Amino acid sequence: MEKTIRKYGRVYRKALLSRQCREIGAKTAAYEARLREMYASDRFKAHSVYPTVNTVHVYAVIAMCLELKALGLSDEEIIGTINHGFTRRRNFFRRIIRAIDVLPNSFSIARKWNISDHDKRVRDGSITYDRFDVGKDRIEYRISKCVYVEMFETWGIRSLCKIFCMTDTTSYENLRRHVTFIRHSDLSDGDACHDEIIRRRKPQ
Question: Which of 31, 171, 197, 198 could form a disulfide with 180 if both were Cys (CB 3.0 to 4.6 A apart)?
């Protein structure tokens, strides 16, 4: 676990550098100390029961949010700063998605992703779907409960779960040749996550 803490400490340090913060060494050490305590908490143990959720990663992000919030940053500033820290990770997934985007069956791939993810989430109870409709050219779902939001809420920063809620939006922005993604709402600041994934047809 110490190796993991140091790894996320480097990410946090990079995020601080992007803001040209002072005393970065001390701030990074404070982050690592907080994360160490969070990993040892009963809350972490309670949240680590879902096979589809990388709780180690989620808690590392929550710890960053808490540290940056303590420094006086707004939610928007926190989200931007953390995203900068994870630039390498984000760019890696962006390249994969863009490669899929050039394929003529990219909607079918997205459709299979969603069906598979739905089945796994329902099985382990990490997400509660009030609705999951799948058609040949469209998927629509509505989620009323999500363990990601619960984890952030447990630490008093529900609104900052937007970092994870934005993952789908960011992904589909790079999958636009054959797919249209519509987000009506998400659970970070609403009562449901309501999305549509639609096959994009070429003009006749």
Answer: 198
The amino acid sitting at 7 is K
In 3D space, the residue among 140, 179, 187, 184 whose CA is nearest the CA of residue 163 turns out to be: 187
Q: What Å distances lie between residue 175 and 105, 123, 200, CA to CA?
A: 11, 27, 10
Reported as a single tens digit per residue, the pLDDT across 6-57 is 999 999 999 999 888 889 999 999 999 999 999 999 999 999 999 999 999 9
Alpha-carbon distance 157 to 163, whole Å? 11
Q: Which residues of 127-154 are buried (b: 16+ CB within 10 A; e: fewer)?
A: bebeebeeeeeebbbbbeebbbbebbeb
Q: Which residues of 19-52 are buried (b: 16+ CB within 10 A; e: fewer)?
A: eeeeebeebbebbbebbeebbeeeebeebeebee
CA distance 142 to 140: 7
The strand pair at 127-134 and 138-146 is best described as antiparallel
Residues with Cβ within 8 Å of 84's Cβ and at least 6 positions away in sequence, in order, are 14, 15, 18
Residue reference for tokens 């009506």: 184
Model pTM score: 0.89
Task: Extract the tokens encoding 159.
Answer: 């609104």
Q: Look up residue 138 and give its two tokens.
A: 């469209």
